[in-house]
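Summary for the steering committee. One of the milestones for this cycle was to obtain a three-dimensional model of the protein with adenosine-5'-triphosphate bound, which we needed before selecting residues for the alanine scan. The sequence and ligand used are listed below.
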Amino acid sequence: MIGQTISHYKIEELLGKGGMGVVYLARDMRLNRPVAIKVLKPELTADPDRLRRFFQEARSAAAVTHPAIAQVYDVDTIDGTTFIVMEYVAGQTVRRLVTNRELDLLGSVEISIQVAEGLGYAHKANIVHRDIKSDNIMVTRDGYAKILDFGIAKLLEDEVEEAKKETSQDLSRTKTLMQTKAGTIMGTAAYMSPEQARGQPVSQASDVFSLGIVIYEMISGELPFKGDSPLDTMHSIAFDEARPVTVVRKNLPPELNRIITRCLRKNPRSRYPNASVLADDLKRLKREIETGTQTTFSRGQRLQGIIEWLKTSMPFGFKGIALAAVALILVAAIIFTNINWSILIGLTFFGLLIYRYVRNRKSRMLNRFVAKVSKFPEVKAISFKEDRITVVVEKAQAKIYIRVNSLINALNKKLYFGRPLTVAVRDDLSQDELQRMMREPGALYVSEDSILEVPNKPA
Ligand SMILES: Nc1ncnc2c1ncn2[C@@H]1O[C@H](COP(=O)(O)OP(=O)(O)OP(=O)(O)O)[C@@H](O)[C@H]1O
Ligand SMILES: [Mg+2]
């Protein structure tokens, strides 16, 4: 490609490769300025309908002009090759800066503010980015952040959606497809919002979630949600709570944790509604860091802070808090009232009964889950270990994955305390592994036809 000319753009240098295509540095020979050209993979735009939607997206993205957004200049298809021409950004991606440990606290907050402002500006124009990640944010040598790839991510979503719908709805095919998309989803999965991971509609709050992950990554050098495969990562995003950033890295302002936590809420309605509101909070944080002051919090915020702190630092989390509170009330009752002992013992007994009932709630709900899932004919076995359920199936089809997940979602919603349950659907266990799993503690169900082989006893 290098040395060639497409339209009036002369390709000069390779800048990088991503999931959707190859990016080159080129010269716009009419305006005589450097541009970046992303040449899209042909299969992404083979479908005329999709191509039309892509042009439409690109048009609305091109209408947004902001210093923190790499401007879209042009889109075109020539001889079957579709490309997008955009502002060339001389600098490094945030991913690079994180890997090379070039970001300090204030630098990270400054970049976060710029990105949140740019994103907020696009949100006001009703445009959602859909693929905010540290690869799609660059920082120039003078410290200006630029968001890349506005108006492109929809293509990728279409691709995955189609893969999901494809013929047999065979999940393992979707999985391989996701993995072989040159790591696109792999790269993107870690930044997906829970609603994107579930294939639900995205909103501005989805970008807020993804930006929350980038901020977490810049500050701590780590990703909050990780898995061995894209599906595992998506799982972790949907169900796990991130370790507070203030635990991953010490000596951070607690306010930073509050801001990131609000970005990473599972429910989009509990997050910042759009990036501008997030930008306001980040700016306040920056002033505090610079002047060494702490904002005065409202009583509600302080209480929330105390609860978050208790939840992470108290042994047994909420359960520990509840037990400590009950003990405290009992001690106070004994000291300050001349309470009748038999009433006290009765109350304690009653309290213990309630505690037992509540404590067993999870296992009761788990039993109900097993009863329902074991009715699916494709399910061979179910086991449970450390809040993680494994459902072994004949063949991991999308419909099973969706059904099992919606059951778990419903269950987790009704779980008032304790860690949410996660579930893995597996079709890759050998007979031996299955047998071993069924012999270990936690085996909950095994279907008739995969009944354990009894090892032959020597005569
Ligand atoms: N406008 C640009 N100016 C300068 N360099 C760019 C520009 N756009 C992309 N690049 C470089 O090209 C690399 C590849 O970008 P590309 O967008 O294809 O991949 P990606 O961001 O990793 O994945 P995705 O396809 O999901 O966006 C980037 O990491 C960046 O270094
Ligand atoms: Mg990109």
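Key point for the committee: The chain has 18 helices and 13 strands.
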